[in-house]
Design a protein that fits this description.
By secondary structure, this protein is mainly alpha-helical. The chain has helices spanning 7-13, 37-51, 56-64, 70-90, 103-106, 110-123, and strands at 19-23, 26-30. The protein has a two-stranded antiparallel ribbon with strand order 1-2. It starts with 6 loop residues before the first helix and ends in an 11-residue tail after the last helix.
């Protein structure tokens, strides 16, 4: 793995990185390319399987498919799995520990979320006063 100095380099070699096509001020997204078909196939199978579990990767899959197609979620999870594998192969002392399906909720900024909801209600024409629940 010394050929790839960072996990992003490995993901780029496997063609699991987003591609931006820019012409002037217009930027569009395109296909990532072929890459290693067997590697991508196996990673996609692992990603689909991980998407159905109650783990961090499963929660990530569910968060992505709320706003993106399922194929994009599979590619994103494939990249995550490949980056995890790179870290585990490069560091023999590293051990994988799952962050848990509730990681995003535990690391959510409550004040930021409150401000966003208040702003949205005010845009709809409501006057909002906040009081803490008992």
């Amino acid at each position: 793995m010394s050929v790839f100095p960072a996990p992003g380099h490995l993901a780029s070699w496997a063609k699991l990185t987003p591609r931006t096509i820019q012409s002037g001020a217009k930027a569009t997204h395109g296909p990532t390319g072929r890459g290693n078909r067997r590697l991508k196939g196996h990673l996609a199978q692992a990603a689909v399987g991980a998407g159905k579990t109650k783990t961090f990767l499963g929660a990530r899959y569910k968060r992505i498919i709320k706003h993106a197609p399922k194929k994009k979620a599979v590619v994103a999870l494939s990249r995550n799995i490949l980056e995890i594998a790179w870290v585990l192969v490069n560091d023999p002392d590293a051990r994988y520990s799952d962050l848990g399906p509730d990681w995003h909720e535990r690391h959510l900024d409550q004040a930021r979320k409150t401000r966003r909801h208040v702003r949205e209600l005010e845009r709809l024409g409501y006057a909002v006063t906040l009081a803490t629940a008992a």
